[in-house]
Amino acid sequence: MYQQMIFVNLPVEDLAAAKGFFTELGYAIDARFGDESTAAVVVSDTIVVMLLTRSRYADFTDKRIADATSTSEVLIALSAESRSHVDALVERAVAAGGTASEKVQDLGFMYGRSFDDLDGHTWEIMWMDPAALDR
């Protein structure tokens, strides 16, 4: 079966800093799909985050580009394999210069935390107990 991919395109102020941030989180940069104004962050086999300088991002839209530090333009949610993986990724994000939200969602069967990256894009990291899906 064909595995559809998602490419999340995000505008960034400082491409080098953004690349460094995501590599600190453990993600690889695929140099085949980048240049001086773009970088491809490989999150999984089917998820790639394209970091684009604001000027390069503007090539793809006529709309005003949101300032994610003051306006929410998207919430990017990623699954994690366990509660401890949720915590570990958020802690790595903070150590790399991101900002953690103080809100923790703990419903027992679902656990989540979030952080903002260097450009203010919000990333929600969630774990859900697979057994809860069978109920």
Short description:
With 135 residues, the protein is of the alpha+beta class. Helix content is 21%, strand content 34%. Strands 5, 6, 7, 8 and 9 form a 5-stranded mixed beta sheet that branches. Strands 1-4-3-2 form a 4-stranded mixed beta sheet.
* Class by SSE composition: alpha+beta
**How many helices in DSSP terms?**
3
Q: Number of DSSP strands?
A: 9
The overall average pLDDT, rounded, is 95
CATH class: Alpha Beta
* Rg over CA atoms: 16 Å
CATH architecture: Roll
Major β-sheet profile? 5 strands, mixed
Number of self-contained structural domains: 1
In the predicted model, the low-confidence regions spanning at least 5 consecutive residues are none
Distance between the termini: 28 Å
Sequence of secondary-structure elements: EHEEEHEHEEEE
- Proportion of residues in helical segments: 10-25%
CATH superfamily: 2,3-Dihydroxybiphenyl 1,2-Dioxygenase, domain 1
Task: Give the overall shape, derived from the CA principal axes.
Answer: globular
Explain this structure to me?
A hairpin with a 5-residue loop joins strand 8 and strand 9 (122-128). It is globular and about 45 Å long. Helices cover 21% and strands 34% of the residues. The two termini are 28 Å apart. Strands 5, 6, 7, 8 and 9 form a 5-stranded mixed beta sheet that branches. It has a single domain (6-134), classed as 2,3-Dihydroxybiphenyl 1,2-Dioxygenase, domain 1 (Roll), CATH 3.10.180.10. The chain has 135 residues and is α+β, with helices and mostly antiparallel strands.
Topology (elements, then pairings):
Elements: E1 6-12, H1 15-24, E2 28-29, E3 38-44, E4 47-53, H2 54-58, E5 75-79, H3 83-95, E6 99-100, E7 105-106, E8 110-116, E9 122-128
Parallel strand pairs: 1-4, 5-9
Antiparallel strand pairs: 2-3, 3-4, 6-8, 7-8, 8-9
